[in-house]
Specification:
Elements: H1 4-19, H2 37-59, H3 68-100
Helix pairs in contact: 2-3
Length: 105
Amino acid sequence: MATPEGRVAARVVALERAHGIEVATASIAKADIYPELPWRAGALAASITALVVAIGDVLRPDWVTSTTLLVSLATSLALSTAVAMRFLREQREAGVVQSHAPARS
C-alpha cells in the first residue's frame, strides 16, 4: 500500500501532466485550531449523557426517583465540563507553541 505522501506525489504528477502547470504541495500537522471544538465536544458529552438517562428511564420506569433529575443534570454538566476542559487544555498548549514559534516567510 502506498504512503500518503506517495499518493499525493502521484496525483500531483498526473495533474501537472494533464494541465501543463506546476503544483507545489505542503504537508502540515494541523491546519487550524478550531476554537469551537471544546464547546461542541462538551455539548456532545451532555447529549450522550442525557440519552443514556432517557434510555434508562424507558427501560426501567420504576428506577426513576425524585433525585434522578438532579443526579442526571449533575452528571451531564460534570461530564461535559470535563470533556470541554480537556479539549481547551490541548488547544491552549498548541496556541502557546504557535505563538512562540518564529514566523516563516
